[in-house]
Specification:
CATH topology of the largest domain: 2,3-Dihydroxybiphenyl 1,2-Dioxygenase, domain 1
Strand order of the largest sheet: 1-4-3-2
CATH architecture of the largest domain: Roll
Strand content: 35-45%
Structural class: alpha/beta
Number of helices: 3
CATH superfamily of the largest domain: 2,3-Dihydroxybiphenyl 1,2-Dioxygenase, domain 1
Distance between the termini: 26 Å
Number of domains: 2
Shape: globular
Number of strands: 8
Order of helices and strands: EHEEEEHEEEH
CATH class of the largest domain: Alpha Beta
Length: about 140
């Protein structure tokens, strides 16, 4: 049923600031921008990672009714090769530590932050992710 991550969306009340923050963090500019009628960009999208997943940032004014503006209860973890370095970079850019580096089991280590726009962002070293990449590369 669930075949893979298509788009992961974050919300920001100050979309231009969020775009700048993520562009600097990722070292890339958004590849897609959707203009809100007469109101500037309402949505931007970055392609990131080994599978070029879509990271979308949406102006909070377009959030579904009832969507909490506070921190969310779901954390999406993005694989990183060097978790301490990734966490240090996020914190240096103004993210707030939510959960410190925590070993979840052999080969599974996580941490999470809250970005300056109130979104929870997880980073993880995940041995299964690397195993999957190795199998994919071997099939090529």
């Amino acid at each position: 049923m669930l075949r893979g991550l298509s788009t992961f969306n974050l919300w920001a009340a100050d979309l231009p600031a969020a775009v700048r923050w993520y562009a600097e963090l990722l070292g890339a500019r958004p590849y897609f921008t959707s203009e809100a009628v007469g109101r500037g960009p309402g949505y931007v999208e970055f392609r990131i990672g080994d599978y070029q997943h879509e990271l979308g940032i949406i102006d909070r004014r377009f959030a579904p009714p009832g969507l909490a503006a506070e921190r969310g209860g779901t954390i999406a973890y993005w694989h990183v090769d060097d978790l301490p370095a990734a966490l240090d970079r996020l914190l240096a850019r103004g993210a707030e530590l939510l959960e410190p580096i925590t070993e979840r089991g052999p080969g599974f280590v996580t941490a999470s932050v809250v970005d300056p726009f109130g979104n929870v962002l997880g980073v993880m070293y995940n041995r299964h992710y690397l195993d999957m990449l190795g199998r994919r590369d071997a099939q090529r």
